[in-house]
Amino acid sequence: MTKSDLIDRVCERLDYLTRKDAEVAVNTLFDYLSEQIAADRRIELRGFGSFGTKSRAARRGRNPKTGETVDVPPKRVPFFRAGKSLREEVDQG
To answer: Which CATH number fits domain 43-92: 3.40.50.150, 3.90.550.10, 4.10.520.10, 3.40.50.410?
Structure first.
């Protein structure tokens, strides 16, 4: 599903919204989620899952093209953990 598909589904479900209004709502939601995750805040959507960040330590890596070892700096990466009901729904097919 693409962002455009999601906007279309919102329009179908909430027929009183125009496509432009649905697009603003979806973009606002994504912007807010991005801001909160970037600020290292955890977001939990009950029944769906939680979004957050994890820290990765500095490490030694290898350039696959040259074989040279390089230092990889520490960083934070976003992650998603599915909620119990989502996992069960996916498992049921």
So the answer is: 4.10.520.10
